[in-house]
Structure formats: C-alpha cells, structure tokens
Amino acid sequence: MERIENCSKRKWKSVGTVICAAHVFKDSGEVNVVLNVDDLINDIIRCPGRTTSSSVISYNPSYEAISDHKRRESLFDHIRRGSKSDIISIEKLISNDPRKFLVSPTNENSFLNKRNVSGKTPLYEASLNGYPEIIKLLMDFGANPLIKSQVDGNEMESCLDVACRWGNIKAVEVLLNFSKWKKKDISKARKLTSNPEIRLLLSNYNRRFSNYTVCC
Q1: Record's superkingdom (predicted)?
Q2: N or C terminus: which one in the chain shows less Cβ crowding within 10 Å?
C-alpha cells in the first residue's frame, strides 16, 4: 500500500512540475501560438539541441504524429472536393502511405479506415458526399465498408446508411455491388430512405443474396 502511495505521489509531483513549467514559459513571453501545422513542424525541427538530420527527424514521434495528421486531413479534404484531380491525389496519398505494408488495409487503424476528429471514416465521407468513383477507389485499395462512423453522440452509422439517408443512388449501387451486407444492415438502410430507386436496389440485393424478401 505504501509503495502505491509513493508511486502516486511521484506521478502527481511530475504533473505539478509540468504545470509549473508551463506557467514559467507562459510568463517568460517565450511561448508562441502556432495555428499552422507546417509552422509547428518547423518549430520542432528548429528546437535547440535537436539535430536537423532528415534520417533522425523521420523517426521523431512528434514529427511522425503531425505528419500522419496532415496526411489524414489531406485525404479527407480531397474526398470532400471530389474532383478528378482530387481523385488522383487520393490515389497518390494511399499509394505513398509509409505504413501500408505494416497494417492491413482492412484494419480499423489503417490509413484507409482511420476515423478523423469527427469520428468519420474516409469511406463514410465519400458516401456522404455521393462520390461513387472515390468509394470504388477506396474499396479497391481495401477500405472496409463495415467499419461504422460516429454521427450524433454515441450513435454509429455505416457508409451504406448515410448514402441511403442522403439519397446518393450511385454511391448505394457501388456499396452494394462491391461488399457483402447482412440482412440487418439492409433492413436498417431501408428505414433511412424514402427514395424508391434506392429501396428497390436494397430489395433486389436481398433477393440475390438471401431468401429474406422485403417488399417495396
């Protein structure tokens, strides 16, 4: 018990040291507010005592975390715009992912599936905006359509759900043609749309892949 208390005291002492240091830096006038990620990277590189060797920087945890964030945000920006040039940029970002051989593309934490700060996956974003070419591209690279995204609070929604809800017919077609959905997924998606074309697509999917039949 005494060991646990001593350990806790040491941890709280460390926290206190960090807080005090933060106040000292703030009062010294040496603290800068950095709003641009590129500026933050440059500040890290110029940090006193830090070598500027590219081989060392590339393995620096802070530098890597910021670089990952920039790549992920860039991917989502291109998906939201959805132009032909953006599609080319998306393909380049995926192809140049430094961890593509370390993590399975279907893994929840891979570049293709990792959620952004809003809790959305790249495939969800493409489905929301109704870009069938981008959906197909992401799935060709291995993006997992079954990984759900956060919408309101703790509610989770699939890319098929959001495509149906927003009436993105072409997006629904691609998602149905290139992935396997359970009956409960199809049933939920049908409840989210009143579009007759989408409801017919969902009904036909059920007829093709199961004996479960729903009428339009």
Answers
A1: Eukaryota
A2: N
